[in-house]
Q: What sequence folds into this?
C-alpha cells in the first residue's frame, strides 16, 4: 500500500478538510474512481445537470483523489488558498468563460478536451456549475 | 491549427467528404474547426504539434456508421486515422502519422457489452476507458480485477491493441484479447475466432481461429478498425501479498533480474514485475526544482543524497502475489529465500484481504488512476514525456548491457536517467522516460537527438523498441532489417491487397500503402 501512503502524503493537507481516509480502512472507492453513470439521452441537447456532467466527464481527474485535484491542491496552497480549493467544485473564483477556455485550450498538464470527451452542450452546463464568479 | 489537407485531396473534395460524413454521423460529430484540429493534436508533441496535424475528426456512434465512413473515405480518397479514445499519451495522443488524415474518433462507442462474472471476461467497444470498465465492475459487484496502465483515461481496447503492458498477472494486455470484430478497409465486417460463426457462444473464450488467426494482425495495425473485442479479466483473488525490496545500487538490477525472471518463467510468480528506478518515486513527491534547481542532469552525488534522505533504493521491486493465502505464503517464502542470497534486508510485506481498503493508486491491483501522470508536472511548464522502450532478454547480462548503454547515452546528453524494467516472462521491457518542457525549444531539440541516438545505438547492439511515438515509427521500423526488411515488405503486401486506396491509418508503425509511399520517412 506504499502508493496509497504516497497519495495520502500529497493530500495530507487536503485530507484534513476533505476527509480522504488517512489509512487503509475498508470502504468504497474514492469519488474519482467511482463517478456516477453518464445521463442517458442526446449528449448534444442543452440544459443538462452541470454537477452530474462534471462528475462524469471531469471526475476522474477533478474529484477527490484525482490527479488534477492533487496538482491543484498544491497550487492553491502555494497561492495562499485553503487546500479544499483544490477541488474545482469548491472554487468561487471561476467564471464560465474561464472554464470553457481551459477545457478547449488546455492548461499546464491538462490536455485539450475534444467534443467527444465533452460536447459543447455538456461544457455549457459544466461551466455554469463551476463558474460561480460569472 | 490551420487546415492541412491530405496528399492529392483538393479543398473541394475534402469538404465533400466532411459533408457526406455529416450525413452519416450528424453535423455535430464532424469536427473541422481550427480548435477541433488542436484538440486532436499531440498534446505532448516533442516540438510543434503541426508536424502531425489532423485535417478533421469524425465520431461515429456504431459499427454501421464506421462502415459508412470507411466507404466514403474510399470514395473521396481521404485517409482515416482511427483512435479508440485518443489518449495514447507520449506516443502521439490522437494525432495521425500522415498530415491531413481525418481522425476517426471511436470514443462515442463506449458500451460494456458483456461482463461475464463466471468465465471472467468482458466484451467492450473501443470508447470504453479503464475507469468506465472498473466502475461497471464495481456497480455489478463482479469478482473481477483489471490490469491497468499508468494513465487510465485511455481506452481498454486501444491500450491492448497498442501492446500496452500492466503490472498484474494479466499484464500483457494484447494477450488478453480474444475474439475481435473489425471493419476492413473496404467497409466489410469480419469477426475472428469462434465469432466467425454467427452466434457462437465461445467467441471470447477460445483464442484461435479455424485456420489462420488474425486477432493480433489488428494490433499496432492499419489492416482494419476494431469495433469491439473480448478481453479476459483476472478473477478477484482470495488474498494478495506485496513484497517490497529497496535495491541499493544501480548495477544490482543484474542479480535482481537473474533472481526473479526464472521464477516468473517457471510460473511461481504470475505477475509482470515492474522495477522502476528511484526517479519513478521522486516524481510524485514534488517538482524537480524542489530537489535540484540547476539545468542538466542531477549529479550522482545529489542522487545519493536524495536516496538517503527519502530512504529509497536505486531500484524498487514491488512484487505481488494473488490467490489462496496458503499458496501465496508458500510462494512468498521461495522468492524471499532467493532474494536473500543477494540482499540481507527482508522485504516489507503488505497483505490484502477482501474488505481491506484497495482503492489507492495501486496499478498492481488493477485500480485505474491518472495520478502517475503527475510526473508531467516534474519539469513544470507544459510538461511532456516520451518513452524509449526497447525489449531485451530477461537475463542480468542483457539487462545490464542495455542499461549501461542507454544510461551513458542519456548522461552524455545531460538528461536525468529514469528507467524501469518490467519482467514479463522471458523478456524484460525497458522504458526510459524522458521528461521535458514542451515550450523549451532547445530542450525539445536535445530530446529528439537523444531519441534518435538511443534508437540507433540500441539497434546496433541488436535490440528493438516495442512501441514508439509517431515521429519515430519509420526509424524504428527501419531497425527491423532481416532479409531486406522482410517484415515491412510482408506488411505492405497485405496492406496493399486489403486497402488499395491506402485509406486506413497510412504509415502506422511504418507500414505505408503504395498510395502514400512517397510520404514514408519524414523523420522527426
A:
Amino acid at each position: 500500500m506504499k502508493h496509497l501512503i504516497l497519495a495520502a502524503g500529497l493530500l495530507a493537507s487536503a485530507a484534513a478538510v476533505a476527509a480522504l481516509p488517512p489509512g487503509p480502512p475498508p470502504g468504497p472507492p474514492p469519488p474519482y474512481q467511482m463517478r456516477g453513470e453518464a445521463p442517458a439521452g442526446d449528449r448534444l441537447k442543452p440544459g443538462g445537470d452541470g454537477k452530474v456532467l462534471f462528475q462524469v466527464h471531469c471526475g476522474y481527474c477533478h474529484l477527490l483523489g484525482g490527479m488534477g485535484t492533487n496538482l491543484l491542491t498544491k497550487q492553491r496552497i502555494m497561492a495562499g488558498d485553503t487546500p479544499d480549493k483544490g477541488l474545482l467544485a469548491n472554487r468561487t473564483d471561476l467564471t464560465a468563460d474561464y472554464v470553457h477556455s481551459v477545457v478547449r485550450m488546455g492548461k499546464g498538464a491538462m490536455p485539450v478536451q475534444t467534443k467527444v470527451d465533452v460536447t459543447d452542450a455538456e461544457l455549457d452546463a459544466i461551466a455554469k456549475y463551476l463558474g460561480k464568479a460569472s | 491549427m490551420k487546415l492541412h489537407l491530405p496528399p492529392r485531396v483538393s479543398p473541394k473534395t475534402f469538404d465533400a467528404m466532411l459533408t457526406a460524413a455529416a450525413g452519416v454521423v450528424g453535423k455535430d460529430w464532424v469536427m473541422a474547426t481550427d480548435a477541433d484540429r488542436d484538440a486532436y493534436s499531440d498534446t505532448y508533441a516533442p516540438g510543434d504539434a503541426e508536424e502531425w496535424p489532423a485535417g478533421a475528426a469524425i465520431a461515429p456512434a456504431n459499427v454501421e456508421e464506421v462502415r459508412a465512413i470507411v466507404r466514403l473515405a474510399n470514395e473521396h480518397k481521404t485517409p482515416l486515422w482511427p483512435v479508440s479514445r485518443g489518449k495514447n499519451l507520449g506516443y502521439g495522443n490522437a494525432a495521425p502519422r500522415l498530415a491531413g488524415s481525418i481522425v476517426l474518433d471511436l470514443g462515442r462507442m463506449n458500451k460494456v457489452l458483456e461482463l461475464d462474472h463466471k468465465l471472467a471476461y468482458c466484451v467492450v467497444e473501443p470508447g470504453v476507458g479503464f475507469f468506465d470498465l472498473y466502475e461497471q465492475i464495481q456497480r455489478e459487484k463482479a469478482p473481477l480485477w483489471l490490469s491497468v496502465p499508468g494513465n487510465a483515461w485511455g481506452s481498454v481496447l486501444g491500450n491492448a491493441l497498442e501492446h500496452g503492458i500492466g503490472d498484474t498477472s494479466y499484464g500483457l494486455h494484447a494477450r488478453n484479447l480474444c475474439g475481435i470484430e473489425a471493419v476492413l478497409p473496404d467497409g466489410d465486417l469480419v469477426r475472428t475466432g469462434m465469432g466467425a460463426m454467427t452466434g457462437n457462444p465461445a467467441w471470447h473464450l477460445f483464442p484461435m481461429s479455424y485456420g489462420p488467426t488474425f486477432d493480433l494482425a489488428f494490433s499496432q495495425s492499419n489492416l482494419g478498425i476494431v469495433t469491439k473485442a473480448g478481453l479476459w479479466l483476472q478473477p478477484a483473488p482470495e488474498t494478495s501479498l506485496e513484497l517490497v525490496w529497496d535495491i541499493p545500487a544501480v548495477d544490482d538490477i543484474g542479480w535482481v533480474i537473474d533472481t526473479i525472471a526464472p521464477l516468473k518463467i517457471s510460473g511461481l510468480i504470475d505477475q509482470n514485475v515492474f522495477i522502476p528506478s528511484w526517479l519513478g518515486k521522486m516524481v510524485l513527491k514534488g517538482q524537480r526544482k524542489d530537489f535540484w534547481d540547476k539545468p542538466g542532469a542531477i549529479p550522482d552525488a545529489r542522487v545519493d543524497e536524495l536516496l538517503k534522505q527519502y530512504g529509497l533504493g536505486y531500484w524498487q521491486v514491488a512484487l505481488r502475489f494473488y490467490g489462496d493465502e496458503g499458496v501465496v505464503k508458500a510462494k512468498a517464502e521461495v522468492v524471499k529465500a532467493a532474494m536473500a542470497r543477494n540482499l540481507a534486508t527482508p522485504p516489507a510485506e503488505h497483505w490484502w484481504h477482501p474488505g481491506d481498503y484497495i482503492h489507492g493508486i495501486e496499478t498492481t491491483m488493477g485500480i485505474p488512476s491518472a495520478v502517475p501522470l503527475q510526473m508531467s508536472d516534474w519539469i513544470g511548464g507544459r510538461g511532456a514525456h516520451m518513452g524509449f522502450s526497447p525489449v531485451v532478454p530477461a537475463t542480468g547480462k542483457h539487462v545490464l548491457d542495455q542499461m549501461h548503454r542507454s544510461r551513458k547515452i542519456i548522461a552524455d546528453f545531460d538528461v536525468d536517467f529514469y528507467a524501469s524494467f518490467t519482467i514479463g516472462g522471458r523478456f524484460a521491457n525497458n522504458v526510459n522516460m524522458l521528461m521535458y518542457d514542451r515550450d523549451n525549444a532547445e530542450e525539445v531539440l536535445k530530446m529528439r537527438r537523444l531519441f534518435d541516438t538511443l534508437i540507433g545505438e540500441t539497434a546496433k547492439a541488436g535490440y528493438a523498441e516495442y512501441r514508439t511515438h509517431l515521429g519515430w515509427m519509420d526509424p524504428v521500423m527501419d531497425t527491423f532489417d532481416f532479409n531486406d526488411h522482410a517484415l515491412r515488405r510482408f506488411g505492405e503486401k497485405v496492406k496493399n491487397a486489403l486497402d488499395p486506396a491506402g485509406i486506413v491509418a497510412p504509415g502506422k508503425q511504418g507500414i505505408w500503402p503504395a498510395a502514400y509511399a512517397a510520404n514514408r520517412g519524414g523523420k522527426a
User: Anything to note?
Assistant: The domain at 239-467 of chain B is CATH 3.40.462.10 (Vanillyl-alcohol Oxidase; Chain A, domain 3). Chain B touches chain A through 57 residues (CB under 8 Å). Chain B has a mean pLDDT of 94. The first strand of chain B starts at residue 30 and ends at 31.
